[in-house]
Specification:
325 residues, 5-stranded parallel sheet, FAD/NAD(P)-binding domain, 7-stranded mixed sheet, 25% strand, alpha/beta
Length: 325
């Protein structure tokens, strides 16, 4: 089978693109997802109960396409996305990590990790902006492997001393979550002020500091991590060391540039080249969601990219669609 549209990634932008394509009368649509479930980044990056809507991030909720979530928490948003998938009967193949995309004679070949190849007339890459979490330059002793984490969902952490490292929204949300789990929480950040954090998270963090529910270690840069009888001794360049049970690094992630460059997509000045229809330098291959939002996307923005790609790009230039009025 040659699919009309093959979508890489089952986050909000991937789901939206598939829904918009179905609404345009296209039948053969497939989403490939490397993880065991959809919207994996939302599940991993946000703490339970956290609002994830555009209004929370200080942006208006302007929905252009079929899908819209005006406001909601992590849980309600995931449930709504579940409903979208079921209502529109989207076909998603999980545990299918895309390794290679090539094109010949106007047909794309998509190779996945388990060895199967798919063919498609058009491709939309809708993966998250962060491929893998950034690792610190500081050496991590092998004996501390279970004590050094890069997300707060891989272990249940309660009534521990925990150091969170980072100065963005994910770090602030990790501190808030860990405090609610009855942990003694410290936050290390290399700068004196938070420049990458939204105002809501910064206010919450300030309250936790003022109420002595969390302790800032700012500015601070980690010099060494040391295993002392199963505890993590964290030595800083600027201040005294601290002993904790866990260290959680929330210092961002690496964008999937290598993956995109391997496909042959053009870059200029470090940015992917796309046109006004979100099409890359490879005809028929589009980017959606966070990949085009300069790491400042919202779920609604991701939804809107799906409409633009399908209606203004794929249906106008490549496939015969039955667009509703």
């Amino acid at each position: 089978m040659i699919y009309d549209i093959l979508i890489v990634g089952s986050g909000p932008s991937g789901i939206s693109t598939a829904v918009e394509a179905k609404n345009a009368g296209l039948k053969n649509i497939l989403i490939l997802e490397k993880n065991e479930t959809h919207s994996f980044s939302i599940r991993k990056l946000y703490v339970d109960g956290k609002r994830v809507d555009a209004a929370y991030k200080g942006e208006p909720a302007v929905c252009d396409g079929l899908l819209c979530i005006a406001d909601g928490t992590k849980e309600s948003t995931l449930e709504t996305l579940n409903e979208f998938i079921q209502k529109h009967r989207l076909e998603i193949h999980y545990h299918s990590e895309v390794e290679k995309i090539s094109k010949e004679n106007d047909v794309f070949t998509i190779r996945v990790s388990h060895g199967k190849n798919y063919s498609a007339k058009t491709v939309v890459i809708a993966i998250g902006v962060f491929g893998r979490p950034n690792k610190p330059e500081t050496k991590i002793p092998p004996s501390l492997k279970e004590h050094i984490l890069f997300d707060i969902t891989s272990q249940v952490i309660e009534q521990k001393k925990v150091l969170v490292v980072g100065g963005g929204n994910s770090a602030a949300e990790a501190v808030e979550f860990l405090v609610h789990q009855k942990n003694d929480v410290f936050l290390s950040y290399r700068k004196e002020t938070f420049s990458k954090m939204n105002t809501v998270n910064e206010k919450i963090l300030g309250t936790l500091f003022s109420e002595h529910k969390a302790t800032p270690i700012i500015p601070s840069n980690i010099k060494e991590l040391q295993d002392v009888n199963g505890k993590v001794h964290v030595h800083f360049n600027e201040c005294n060391s601290v002993e904790v049970d866990k260290v959680i690094f929330q210092i961002g992630g690496t964008t999937p540039d290598n993956f995109l460059k391997a496909i042959g997509i053009d870059y200029t000045n470090g940015d992917v080249v796309i046109n006004e229809k979100l099409e890359t330098s490879i005809p028929g291959l589009y980017l959606a969601g966070d990949l085009i939002a300069n790491k400042k996307g919202t779920i609604i923005k991701a939804f809107n990219t799906g409409k633009k790609i399908v209606r203004e790009g794929i249906c106008e230039d490549y496939l015969e669609c039955e667009l509703p009025t």
